[in-house]
Recover the amino acids of this structure.
């Protein structure tokens, strides 16, 4: 059996009369891994997924999914993978159960197994009660869950989820995260694109950050955050006139860092402990209105690598390609 | 091959389920041929008294063959509308990603269109017989007539599929429809070819639809005439449009169904 890994070398997509949406990326996703592909809208996430799922041919580079070449062995790739794309492509006139039946036929699942498998998946995604209703009446969350069930009908070894929780309420998002975790524990390799930092942080074993079609950082969330630096402590004095005195005390614990207009911040040297700082401020009789410890986030990683914050870093010129 | 058939089964099942569960999709495709038949065979029946009109089974049978072939061709065009809608709404992406063998998608749409048209053909035949249509041909002749119509249906499906897969928008409707409409109506629809004159006769003589109509009418009358030529033309068009449709599928694949 071939490995359920994902590999790409120099994978690129240049749209005719359009942007170079993906600009030569290298990827290696190990079997059973959850790989989070993080980036703003228009960065090239969906185009990458479209190429890896054989929906779109690359203009340069190579890719292998489940051990098969994405250009020359497309049919084998499609048989090995499940995919839930960004826009849940559902037929509003069909019911949820109809969709499952169609998807099972497309994958050549024997008729005798279809009914049982459909029931099993409907239970798994919590849609048993709505199974015989037309999809046109489903909520966004229900459509996403059905889309996930459809991606799982043939028990794929590799699952591509393109922004699976965009637009979902927190409860539906948490339910989907649980399901992705369960799938990974069953040995399914998950390639997940997202623009939510928290999602990548919580779910992904490793994260790749893409911007302008290039991977700008890759690693475990902890390693990426560790790479860009130490936590910062920000103090807002109760008396604004004491900002200078507070800054003098904080300077003992690290180098100055960017802070809010009323506050003073330092990037801490060594361990991120607040107690010594509180004691030092108290010893100088300085009163504090707010004290916060900022651990580095993936947004800080994105900021460090691209000079922009991920929040609101949308690239309008490439949105059409996504 | 098994994989291709499985994909075709799924696609055909979905199209037919939608059609049979939604009257707004089913009724027009049944009603329009009946309307044309009633209008042409009933309203224009007086043409049969024109000098030189020599079709032995009467004007109802004469028009039945045209409406049968017209319904076959346009049933194919309507399939193209459905495919274009699937691309426009993104559903085609699901089919392209899920189907290991994508040729099965074409086959599935075609099978569904054939079943839809078969229903129209049965209904049209029943109504025509109830209206007193005379049939001079035997079983073999009638089999030939319906087989010819089936080939026209398949050619129509493949033509429209090719257009839909290239343009991938409902706005492509006129591109699918207009050439079929013009081809059919530049054939001897209301009178035999021998009664046409001038430029329209010149065009009708080289129009493949004329071959289908003349051969179909001769089969219904039980006096087969140039049937092999008509079948050859229909098969040729079918093969040509099969290539057109397959290349359309490749075009859609290159564009990522967008």
């Amino acid at each position: 059996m071939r490995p359920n890994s994902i590999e790409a070398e120099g994978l690129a997509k240049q749209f005719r009369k359009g942007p170079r949406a993906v600009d030569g990326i290298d990827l290696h996703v190990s079997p059973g891994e959850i790989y989070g592909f993080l980036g703003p809208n228009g960065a090239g996430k969906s185009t990458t997924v479209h190429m890896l799922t054989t929906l779109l041919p690359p203009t340069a580079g190579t890719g292998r999914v489940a051990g098969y070449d994405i250009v020359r062995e497309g049919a084998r790739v499609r048989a090995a993978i499940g995919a839930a794309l960004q826009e849940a492509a559902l037929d509003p006139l069909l019911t949820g159960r109809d969709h499952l039946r169609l998807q099972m036929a497309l994958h050549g699942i024997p008729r005798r197994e279809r009914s049982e498998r459909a029931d099993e998946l409907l239970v798994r995604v919590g849609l048993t009660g709505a199974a015989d209703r037309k999809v046109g009446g489903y909520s966004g969350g229900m459509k996403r869950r059905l889309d996930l069930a459809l991606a799982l009908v043939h028990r794929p070894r590799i699952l591509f989820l393109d922004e699976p929780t965009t637009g979902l309420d927190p409860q539906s998002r948490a339910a989907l995260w649980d399901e992705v975790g369960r799938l990974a524990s069953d040995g399914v390799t998950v390639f997940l694109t997202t623009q939510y930092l928290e999602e990548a942080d919580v779910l992904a074993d490793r994260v790749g950050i893409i911007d302008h079609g290039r991977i700008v950082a890759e690693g475990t969330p902890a390693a990426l955050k560790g790479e860009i630096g130490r936590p910062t402590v920000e103090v807002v004095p109760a008396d604004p006139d004491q900002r200078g005195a507070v800054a003098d005390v904080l300077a003992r614990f690290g180098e100055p860092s960017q802070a809010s207009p009323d506050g003073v911040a330092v990037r801490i040297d060594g361990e991120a402990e607040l107690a010594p700082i509180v004691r030092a401020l108290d010893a100088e009789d300085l009163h504090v209105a707010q004290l916060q410890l900022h651990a580095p986030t993936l947004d800080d990683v994105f900021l460090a690598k691209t000079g922009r914050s991920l929040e609101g870093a949308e690239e309008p010129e490439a949105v059409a390609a996504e | 091959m098994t994989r291709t058939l499985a994909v075709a089964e799924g696609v055909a099942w979905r199209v037919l389920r939608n059609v049979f569960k939604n009257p707004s999709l089913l009724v027009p495709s049944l009603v329009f041929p009946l309307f044309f038949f009633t209008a042409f065979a009933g309203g224009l029946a007086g043409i049969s008294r024109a000098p030189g009109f020599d079709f032995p089974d009467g004007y109802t049978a004469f028009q039945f063959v045209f409406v049968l072939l017209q319904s076959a061709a346009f049933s194919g065009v309507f399939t193209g509308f459905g495919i274009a809608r699937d691309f426009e709404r993104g559903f085609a992406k699901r089919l392209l990603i899920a189907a290991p063998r994508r040729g099965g998608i074409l086959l599935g749409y075609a099978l569904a269109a054939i079943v839809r048209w078969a229903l129209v053909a049965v209904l049209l035949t029943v109504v025509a017989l109830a209206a007193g249509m005379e049939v001079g041909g035997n079983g073999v002749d009638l089999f030939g007539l319906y087989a010819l119509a089936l080939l026209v249906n398949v050619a129509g499906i493949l033509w429209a599929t090719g257009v839909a897969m290239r343009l991938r928008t409902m706005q492509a409707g006129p591109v699918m429809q207009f050439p079929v409409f013009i081809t059919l109506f530049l054939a001897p629809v209301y009178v035999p070819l021998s009664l046409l004159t001038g430029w329209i006769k010149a065009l009708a003589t080289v129009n493949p639809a004329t071959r289908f109509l003349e051969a179909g009418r001769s089969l219904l009358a039980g006096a087969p005439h140039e049937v092999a030529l008509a079948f050859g033309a229909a098969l040729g068009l079918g093969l040509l449009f099969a290539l057109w449709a397959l290349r359309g599928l490749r075009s859609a694949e290159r564009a990522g169904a967008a």
